[in-house]
Amino acid sequence: MLTLLTYPSAFGLFSASPFCVKTALMLQQSGQAWRRSDMLDPRKMPHQKLPVLRTPERLVPDSDLIREWLEAQGADFDQGLTDVQKAQARTLTRMSEEHLYFHIVLDRWGNDAVWPILRAMFFAEIPALIRKPVSGAIRKSVLRGIRTQGIGRFSPAERLDRVERDLEAISAYLWQSPFLLGEHPTSADMSVGPMLAAMRATPADTPLTRRIKQDNLLNSYVDRMEEALPLA
């Protein structure tokens, strides 16, 4: 049986990480037998990140590489799509994972209202005496990374404007069909859906959580994804 090494459930979601949720959705759709194994410290993993899929032969890191492995076993996450639609799915996935994701990270790690919740959740295994300094150093490292990536250099208004352009693009697809590229979820939905769900689930009232919750189209899409591809 395959084992998905994932961050634990959080904020009412399968995992705090949308990439772990994406991988769980792909596993569900693949028809493979699998189970979850939660962990908080991925430093011994191949890329020092999660998700990782434990197969009978090896550990497969990264959600994209896991997708390739599953497809090599016969999975087809874009069944019925044209070549143009497959290209659109790829583009939507990249927009979600290489742009929207970093706004979510900043909304959580850079938000003083959210940080105590994250610290209690992700650093519970660190002895209480050193938990605050250790977690604080990691937080600073994450925020430095967001600044290096570029999102952290913008003002809050500029960041919201950039997110808005992405959400408008996603909405343009959803006006046409219940899922991004048709009547059933495809690879694009397995990336975009978890990302919007993570944005909505951040445990504080932020402009991003409000943006999703107050948008009937996007809010119902997140609900529809959870109904169409339920995870235990």
Main pleated sheet: 4 strands, mixed
Number of helices: 9
Strand order of the largest sheet: 2-1-3-4
In the CATH scheme, what's the topology name of the largest domain?
A: Glutathione S-transferase Yfyf (Class Pi), Chain A, domain 2
Shape: globular
Q: What structural category characterises the helix and strand content?
A: alpha+beta
- The N- to C-terminal Cα distance equals 17 Å
For this entry, what is the oligomeric state of its chains?
A: single chain
Tally the beta strands.
4
Under CATH at level 1, the class of the largest domain stands as Mainly Alpha
State the helicity in percent bands.
55-70%
What's the number of domains?
A: 2
Mean pLDDT: 95
Poorly predicted tracts of residues = none
Order of helices and strands: EHEEEHHHHHHHH
Q: What's the CATH architecture of the largest domain?
A: Up-down Bundle
Strand content: 5-15%
Radius of gyration: 18 Å
What would you say about this model in short?
The protein contains nine helices and four strands. With 232 residues, it is α+β, with helices and mostly antiparallel strands. Helix 3 packs antiparallel against helix 6, helix 7 crosses helix 8 and helix 7 packs across helix 9.
Provide structural commentary.
The chain is of the alpha+beta class. The chain has two domains: 71 residues, Glutaredoxin (3-Layer(aba) Sandwich); 146 residues, Glutathione S-transferase Yfyf (Class Pi), Chain A, domain 2, CATH 1.20.1050. The protein contains nine helices and four strands, in the order βαβββαααααααα. It has a four-stranded mixed sheet with strand order 2-1-3-4, with helices on one face. Helix 1 packs antiparallel against helix 7 and helix 3 crosses helix 5. The protein is globular, with a radius of gyration of 18 Å. The chain starts with a strand and ends with a helix. 30% of the residues are buried.
